[in-house]
Amino acid sequence: MIDRFAAVAVLTLLIVAGPAATQDAPPPVQEYEVPAGSRPHDVAPAADGSIWYTAQSLGQLGKLNPETGETYHIPLGPGSRPHGVIVGPDNAAWITDGGQNAIVRVDAETEAVIVYPLPPETGYTNLNTAAFDGDGILWFTGQSGIYGWLNPDSGEMGVFEAPRGAGPYGITATPDGEIYYASLAGSYVGHIDRETAEVTVLDPPTANQGARRVWSDSQGRIWVSEWDGGNVSVYNPADESWQTWRLPGERPQPYAVYVDERDIVWLSDFNANALVSFDPATETFTSYPLPSASGNVRQILGRPGEVWGAESGVDKLIVIRTQAS
Each residue of 15-68: pLDDT tens digit? Predict the structure, then answer.
């Protein structure tokens, strides 16, 4: 289906914590409407310039053409409730589908849908997010207390119980193909041994911080959004050290985290209704208020020059273009 779009550009307020900001002027935030009732949860820029998004409440995968604002949806199967979406090495869209308790692949060209159900004995797992490791294996999390892997070539799958039970949420791959995930309920970051599937638990300095999502930078450092702690923290595997910074504002509540091609860290602050960037070199935060109230950006992803988010609260996608096309 084709829907009208709204593109709203707003200049935003600069908030500085620490040294002076290095940016002369914040770029504008642009919004695109998606079909009513979609409740978009995650986004993923596709190789052809379009944007995939999970229409969680409709059980469909959406696709946006940023040039025209046109959208259309692909049904994923009975009972589908898609959560995460990423683009794999094969350029296909890979989805963690909590409703079907399955990993779903949508071909980038034919849009054919393949469903990989989790083993029946796993029960309901509340699938969340996925990432490909350096060997092309898809790793995924389930908030009910599991993590697992899928071999796309054979369809073979492994599912494991997570340390500390419920909580596995965000997941990321480092440039050298290592896999880390965040446990929201467990308040830790887990490093998965890809050979044994065993997890090493890494505790951020702040107790009960509610590590929600993780993302690797170009150096393999793991950035963590602390939902309950109001912080962004980073773990350096090279020396096993941690650093932590509190987001600006009275009660920050960072949900998503993403690191762009310049190693600038992006977070979504639910309480401030804003995207927030953090420059590790200057330890400077910059805030970009969302055009719509209660936007609720639950995930951020991007490509060079663009940072995308899904406003689940208002049925819109947003983009910040950090450099000229």
Answer: 333 333 344 555 789 999 999 999 999 999 999 999 999 999 999 999 999 999
Q: Which domain holds residue 177?
A: 29-321
Q: What is the number of structural domains in the chain?
A: 1
Region class of 37: left (phi > 0), else alpha (psi between -120 and 50), else beta: left
CATH code of the domain containing 256: 2.130.10.10
In a domain, 9, yes or no: no
Contacts of 110 (CB under 8 A, 6+ apart): none
Residue 82 belongs to a domain: yes
Kindly report, residue by residue over 200-231, the tens digit of the pLDDT. 999 999 999 999 999 999 999 999 999 999 99
Q: For residues 212 and 195, is the Cβ–Cβ distance under 8 A? A: no
Q: State the CB neighbour count (10 A cutoff) for residue 282.
A: 14
CA 189 to chain centre: 15
Asked if residue 113 is part of any domain, the answer here is yes
DSSP letter (8 states) at residue 10: B
pTM over 0.85: yes
Q: What is the pLDDT of residue 231?
A: 98
Query: What mean pLDDT do residues 290-316 have?
Result: 97
For 202, phi then psi, to 5°, come to: -120, 120
110: β partners:
none
